[in-house]
Fold:
Amino acid sequence: MPIKAKMPPKPKKKISQPPKKTQPHKPIDLEEVERLAAQGLNKEDICYCLGISPTTLYSRQRIDADVVVAIERGRAKGRQLATDGLKSLMEAKDLAAIKFFLTHRGEDWKKTTVVQNTGKDGGPIQVEDVTPRDRRQVVNDFASVLKQAAAIRDDDDDEESE
Structure:
């Protein structure tokens, strides 16, 4: 009986697929983007208001500089509106507005809090390394304090029961 050699399988023909059709770009209303940014919305909130995904906005920003400009222009308009309102309050001698401006804008008027930790009499903080022998002493001291507390509690219990 002759031995038949196995033939390698025939290569499968590749079926060429048509190129993926991407959805047409949904137009982004740049005036609306600017208006929403002026209201102080972040990019994610702007996307939800426009009905697009954040991924769409980020990819559109990479290919269309006008989207970036609309967001920055809107943010600037929002800051301008807030600054104009603050200026009006300061002109009306609103002390809270003046204090806010000075603590947030004035270079020399920044509100700062300084916390310094020092040791005894303002000296450096002392740090001691606790060796294993010292730890045993601490444990023994703690145990004796617990015994004393238990004895006091027992004395109090005896007095209450009498």
In short: The mean pLDDT is 81. Residues 144 and 150 are 10 Å apart (CA to CA).
